[in-house]
Amino acid sequence: MGRPRHGARLVHLRGGAQGDVAAGSGGVRRITTLGIKDKSKHCISETTGNHYSEVDVYYFCTCFYTFSAYDTLIVWSEAENYDLALSFQEKAGCDEIWEKICQVQGKDPSVEVTQDLIDESEEERFEEMPETSHLIDLPTCELNKLEEIADLVTSVLSSPIRREKLALALENEGYIKKLLQLFQACENLENTEGLHHLYEIIRGILFLNKATLFEVMFSDECIMDVVGCLEYDPALAQPKRHREFLTKTAKFKEVIPITDSELRQKIHQTYRVQYIQDIILPTPSVFEENFLSTLTSFIFFNKVEIVSMLQEDEKFLSEVFAQLTDEATDDDKRRELVNFFKEFCAFSQTLQPQNRDAFFKTLAKLGILPALEIVMGMDDLQVRSAATDIFSYLVEFSPSMVREFVMQEAQQSDDDILLINVVIEQMICDTDPELGGAVQLMGLLRTLIDPENMLATTNKTEKSEFLNFFYNHCMHVLTAPLLTNTSEDRYEKDNIVGSNKNSMICPDNYQTAQLLALILELLTFCVEHHTYHIKNYIMNKDLLRRVLVLMNSKHTFLALCALRFMRRIIGLKDEFYNRYITKGNLFEPVINALLDNGTRYNLLNSAVIELFEFIRVEDIKSLTAHIVENFYKALESIEYVQTFKGLKTKYEQEKDRQNQKLNSVPSILRSNRFRRDAKALEEDEEMWFNEDEEEEGKTVVAPVEKSKPEDDFPDSYEKFMETKKAKESEDKENLPKRTSSGGFKFTFSHSASAANGANSTNSKSVMAQTPPASSNGSSSKTATLASSVTATKGSNPQAILAYRG
Question: Does 143 map to a domain?
Fold first, then answer.
């Protein structure tokens, strides 16, 4: 077969990330205006000569769907709700076909869109005209006129003015009820053709988008017949049984009998109209997206009325709450009550802010939060899930209301039954392998502890009060799985020692790893937003050391979470944190992870490098000195980045500056300074750091050895310094000596014994050769790798939760 005259490609326009799909190429053979079945445009395949696509021109010639022309492209929408395009090789061929399409539709080919254009002045004139002067003459409502009625309804949809005229005609003549009587007759006579026409008519009337027509169509008298008409889609081989589903399958459950008949009718109507919109009607195409806006508004205002009517019925709500909290209520009944409240709260989202505020205050007054506390602890997964959704509505609306409740509750209840602790327990005990519920609950907890949405007035400081409450009553519950899974105690009974112990202590269970990652994400948020509260907790529990145990996890995402936690701490550039890290030798597990990663260029490698690059760029002197003096020999072989060489350079530059300052001091003062031991120099440096360090409300982090409430923070550093000096004197005696072989090892242990400087079996070691001795016989300070550095022992955590991994 020769090449078609009008070469073109038929393209399915899918849009988005999926892109367009070419259905094939060929040529347009004919566009006719004969019978309905012949009104087709045929594209012939160039390779096989077969008809690969037939596009129904009759449908779009009725003006319901519009054509657009763009140089060599003609675009339209099909009834199946996807867009199509003919892409022509030549503009002349495109123009010729465009003229023929416009001729079939009776449109002007000079206009690039076949949909009727609206003149604002014409619209204004239409509004000013008397209602009866421009009505469309409707055919008589008879069986033999159904095809004519269907053509009329479909033809006006492209013109807003004609839609208005038709809507007025339908409303004034009570036409819809007459059509539904014909539907009953067609069904009794099994008149399939008539039923198909009625489907087109009722669907078209819905697309007129008129609230007055919806009031008639969705009345109790008419709505089921409307659903019946929409069952007979001509595109389907068999009609759908929507009425059977609505009357037999869908059950209306009254958790408490509703005595208001108007309220019952409104609930039934809303459910059925929502079913029509979501199930029966197809997803609107780009050309139809605004055609059902009034239908959406109809459902919206119905929900507003339902919520308002229920809210005003205090007797009804009081009875619901009474049964929900009654211990005698059986599980099935309680499940229905919780599901009712879930839907009730979902409907409340349609209220205006002022009305929504009154709605949630009403629920709070009736006791929604104590009720949630009960149902969230139940074993029924469906009930817990619904309760979580209700809780999310409350937190989203007013986190302050929830915080106020839990703080008042703490004065009367034990920690174990506090609402927030119940929420944390549900997060920890989530049985979903993907922890979907835990993720949702973690987001709610983050909202509750976010200082950005806490109030601070002259009479009330919500931020301070709530954070004190949270860290005193809830934080130990949140961190229990983390401390339990990084504890040595669970492995000592199995006599696991050395490197095996360090690897075994890291949980390899994927679900446990996911949970620990969620907890670390929340703790990282606390580091960023809670300043001294989390600082005190980290040091009291030696929390960073425990977190860094997770650097050994086989799950890279968990190791990255642990690293991110440390990165946020270092990002604060707080010298208290810096001293805590250096004294505890807490860079060691990070460096071990980097060296174990080898030459692999992955996310873990990049994250570790970024951590050290931040220290270099920000010139954090105490950390730079610690890294270079203790770890440079292990890191100097890494040359694909200049980070570690840059740290060495920064360190040497700072050392030179200090030497120059020392040389500028008079000899008498210098000799006196030299007589002072290294301990005195270190104390001077620490006192210098402390001069400018003031926390919120002059609050100072308590010593690591003793866990104290944050309300008991000292007002000065004196107690801290006295304790620290005594501890360092003890540590100095226990510092390991350099081995005679000239080799050094640095090891990391999270155990309490390591924290106290006691000897423990190495979990990992990195070896480096001793550099040649200097001329005066002393070894170079920069060549020394880290020995076991003492850290203050944190309090031994007691896991009060039974964690189910």
Answer: yes
